[in-house]
Design a protein that fits this description.
By secondary structure, the chain is α+β, with helices and mostly antiparallel strands. The chain has two domains: 27-159, Immunoglobulin-like (Sandwich); 172-425, Metallo-dependent phosphatases (Purple Acid Phosphatase, chain A, domain 2). 14% of the residues lie in helices and 34% in strands. It is built from six helices and 29 strands. It has helices at 184-196, 215-229, 246-251, 286-297, 322-327, 329-334, and strands at residues 7-11, 14-18, 32-35, 42-45, 53-54, 65-71, 80-86, 95-99, 105-108, 110-115, 124-132, 140-148, 151-152, 156-159, 172-177, 201-204, 234-236, 261-265, 268-272, 303-307, 339-342, 348-351, 354-355, 358-359, 368-372, 388-392, 397-403, 406-412, 418-425. The protein has a seven-stranded mixed β-sheet, with helices on one face. Strands 17-16-15-27-28-29 form a six-stranded mixed β-sheet, with no helix packed on it. Strand 28 and strand 29 form a beta hairpin. Helix 1 runs parallel beside helix 2 (215-229). The N and C termini lie far apart (61 Å). The structure holds fe (ii) ion (2 copies).
């Protein structure tokens, strides 16, 4: 056990964990890497966690599978990551059986422990993740998690992303929601609404929990989310309430270093960015550089979406972010990003199309900014500024229906009642 003072500081800008006086982590919690079998990439655990190992046959007292959810670490046409915990946190055994129309293949899990809590003083938590690679695009798979023959999960299904080179008419549904924090009853209602809308991918805009290192909240988030997230992969922007906790990195499977990354899903190019990096100067240097290069390299994408936590425009509590307006919005303008999906303010807001900080007449001339921070945290009053096309202070989630020539947004409240919709078409 590590003994030192550690506090969480709440400032106007958000939450910061202060552990400057922490002694070095013991060697066992320095993280590590392992190659995902059959995938050709490395799985990394961060500082605060053990090095990842392949599952063996060790069973703890209760290997019941819990908190099943999906992630993506590589090309979503051929990759899926199945993640779970067991009731005992001691079991190391685990495989995923999977296939099309039957469980014909088996992939052994990777597993490791991490130390939750501020400064690692909370409970130890074990995660299991099986990386499925070489899958067929646009295909429904069945899967089942097996600790041993007595502890088997229900049968689940997921769908791989379509290959638009062979299926140019493919439509995908991308969900966006954020800021559940301590409002997990609302989150559970939105999970049910989203589940009935059969999304392909959930883009979470951050602040899943109130205090990132506290495992109890993550347990509520993933337990309530399981009916949706056991079938649909989740990628989350890092929110200021996650404070770069090991819990965030260990429980979500995302591409690259997991805070700034991009992927193509159907006709959408999706860029996910961190608006509260450990070094704030990175917003205007390394992350800005990543964004510039990423958008330049994806110029042929039909639709460009960006997902991050802080709002570039908001007429609510936290307001617009001048750093992002100065450093990132000019890149959104230059590369004609269609939609920027954000959270942080706990309400729903949609701007008019914006270019060079001004309202422009049509989406063909600018970028629409969405605040979708209504996943359960206490609501903030909505506001209206010159850029505001629509705003309302209700809990909400939204889906984006995306085809080659059309993007349709539908936002709805936890009962499913519609609150906003619009469609953009391209020739
Ligand atoms: Fe928030
Ligand atoms: Fe936030």
């Amino acid at each position: 056990m590590r003994l030192f003072a550690a506090v969480v500081v709440v400032t106007a800008g958000g939450l910061t964990a202060c552990t400057e006086d922490a002694p070095p982590l013991p060697p066992a919690l320095q993280g590590g890497t392992i190659e995902a079998p059959g995938c050709g990439y490395l799985v990394t655990s961060r500082e605060g966690a053990e090095a990842p190992l392949l599952a063996d046959d060790h069973l703890g007292l209760d290997p019941t599978v819990r908190q099943v959810h999906l992630g993506l670490a590589a090309d979503p046409r051929s990759n899926m990551v199945v993640m779970w915990r067991t009731a005992d946190d001691d079991t190391r055994a685990g495989v995923v059986r999977h296939g099309v129309g039957g469980l014909t293949a088996e992939t052994r899990a990777i597993t490791y422990m991490y130390q939750s809590g501020i400064g690692g003083l909370g409970t130890p938590v074990r995660v299991h993740e099986a990386h499925l690679c070489g899958l067929t695009a646009g295909t429904e798979y069945q899967y089942q998690i097996v600790s041993d023959e007595l502890h088997v999960s229900p049968l689940y299904t997921f769908r791989t992303a379509p290959d638009i080179t062979t299926d140019p008419d493919a439509e995908v549904i991308i969900a966006n929601v954020g800021d559940s924090r301590d409002g997990f009853a609302v989150w559970a209602m939105l999970v049910e609404q989203l589940r009935t809308r059969t999304p392909d991918l959930v883009l979470f805009s951050g602040d899943a929990v109130t205090i990132g290192p506290f495992q109890d909240e993550w347990d509520e988030f993933f337990t309530a989310g399981e009916p949706l997230l056991s079938q649909v992969p989740i990628l989350s922007a890092h929110g200021n309430h996650e404070i770069h906790a090991i819990n965030f990195y260990a429980q979500l499977a995302m591409p690259g270093e997991e805070t700034n990354f991009s992927l193509d899903y159907g006709h959408a190019h999706i860029t996910v960015l961190d608006t509260s990096p450990p070094e704030l100067g990175d917003l205007t240097s390394s992350i800005q550089d990543f964004l510039r290069d990423d958008l330049a390299a994806s110029s042929s994408a039909r639709w460009k979406l960006v997902n991050h936590h802080y709002g570039v425009y908001s007429a609510s509590n936290h307001g617009s972010d001048p750093t992002l307006q100065a450093a990132w919005a000019p890149l959104y303008d230059r590369h004609h990003v269609d939609l920027v999906l954000t959270g942080h303010d706990h309400n729903y807001e949609r701007t008019f199309p914006m270019n060079n900080l001004k309202v422009v007449p049509t989406p063909a001339e600018g970028t629409i900014y969405i605040v979708s921070g209504g996943a359960g945290a206490s609501l903030y009053a909505s506001g209206t500024e010159a850029w505001t096309a629509f705003s309302t202070s209700v809990h909400s989630a939204l889906t984006l229906r995306i085809r080659n020539t059309m993007l349709q947004l539908d936002a709805f409240d936890p009962t499913g009642a519609p609150i906003d919709t619009f469609t953009i078409t391209k020739p």
